[in-house]
Specification:
Blueprint lengths: L3 H4 L4 H6 L8 E7 L7 E5 L2 H14 L4 E8 L2 E5 L5 E4 L9 H7 L6 E5 L5 E10 L5 E11 L2 E5 L19 H7 L14 E3 L2 E3 L22
Antiparallel strand pairs: 1-2, 1-3, 3-4, 4-5, 6-7, 7-8, 8-9, 10-11
Length: 223
C-alpha cells in the first residue's frame, strides 16, 4: 500500500529534486547565471512540451537564460531541431563533494568553489608547502572537487581546457585571449579566433560568431 511519502514522488516539484534523470528525458536548464548545482526548471519526455516551456522561460526572465538538453548515456546533450541528441553539453550535472561544500563554510579555511565559464566547478584554496630552505610557505592552487574526481591538482579546466593558472592573474594576455573567446565557442573544434586586417575571424562557418547561446555547428574538440 502506498504511503504519503510514496505519493510525494508523483508531485512534479518533488520529482525535480529527488527522482534521478532518465535516458531520453528532456531537461530545461538555466545556463546563466550558472550555479554550483544544475538548476532544472522542467523535466519531460515530450520534446514539444519541453521546447515550448524553454521558450516561455526565456521570454519570462530578463537576467537568466535557459536551454533544452536531453539525457543520453547519463550525460547532458544539446538537442537538434527534431529533438534528437546533437553534441555533448559543456554544462553537466556536476556533483560537488560534500567536504568542499563544508570547507567554504569554514571561517578558518581560505578557499572557495569557483565556477568556470563552461559551468565546471573547481576548488581554489591554500596549501602549505616546504621550500628548499625548509621554510613553510602557503600557496594558492586549484584542485578538482567533484564526488567522482577530487583532490587532483589542475592547471586548466578539465571540461573546456581554459587555463586556470592564468585566471589568477587578471593582467595575463593569455587569459584575456581566452575570456574574449565567445562562451558558445569554448571547446569547439571549429573555433579559429585569429585577426586578419584587424578583423577577428571566429570560424569559417560563422565568421562573426553565432548570435545565441547554442551554435548548431558546435563540434567537440577532442584534442
Amino acid at each position: 500500500m502506498d504511503t504519503a511519502a510514496d505519493l510525494l514522488f508523483l508531485n512534479e516539484e518533488v520529482a525535480l529534486r529527488i527522482n534521478p534523470f532518465s535516458e531520453g528525458e528532456y531537461l530545461v536548464i538555466q545556463t546563466y547565471p550558472q550555479e554550483k548545482n544544475l538548476k532544472v526548471s522542467k523535466r519531460s519526455f515530450d520534446y514539444e512540451i519541453a521546447k515550448k516551456y524553454c521558450e516561455l522561460e526565456g521570454l519570462g526572465h530578463d537576467y537568466a537564460t535557459f536551454e533544452l538538453r536531453i539525457i543520453r548515456d547519463h550525460k547532458l546533450w544539446t538537442v537538434n531541431n527534431s529533438g534528437y541528441p546533437r553534441t555533448i553539453s559543456q554544462q553537466q550535472d556536476w556533483k560537488v563533494s560534500p567536504e568542499y561544500l563544508e570547507a567554504i563554510d569554514d571561517n578558518d579555511n581560505h578557499g572557495e568553489i569557483i565556477i568556470c565559464f563552461c559551468s565546471y566547478p573547481y576548488f581554489h584554496g591554500v596549501t602549505a608547502q616546504t621550500s628548499g630552505s625548509g621554510e613553510v610557505v602557503e600557496c594558492w592552487h586549484c584542485v578538482t572537487c567533484l564526488v567522482d574526481d577530487h583532490e587532483r591538482e589542475i592547471h586548466s579546466c578539465p571540461n573546456c581546457e581554459i587555463s586556470l593558472v592564468d585566471e589568477l592573474d587578471d593582467d595575463s594576455d593569455d587569459f584575456y585571449e581566452q575570456i574574449t573567446q565567445p562562451a558558445v565557442c569554448i571547446g569547439c573544434a571549429n573555433y579559429h579566433g585569429q585577426e586578419y586586417a584587424e578583423e577577428l575571424l571566429i570560424c569559417a562557418i560563422h565568421p562573426y560568431g553565432w548570435d545565441g547561446v547554442s551554435c548548431p555547428d558546435f563540434t567537440v574538440n577532442n584534442n
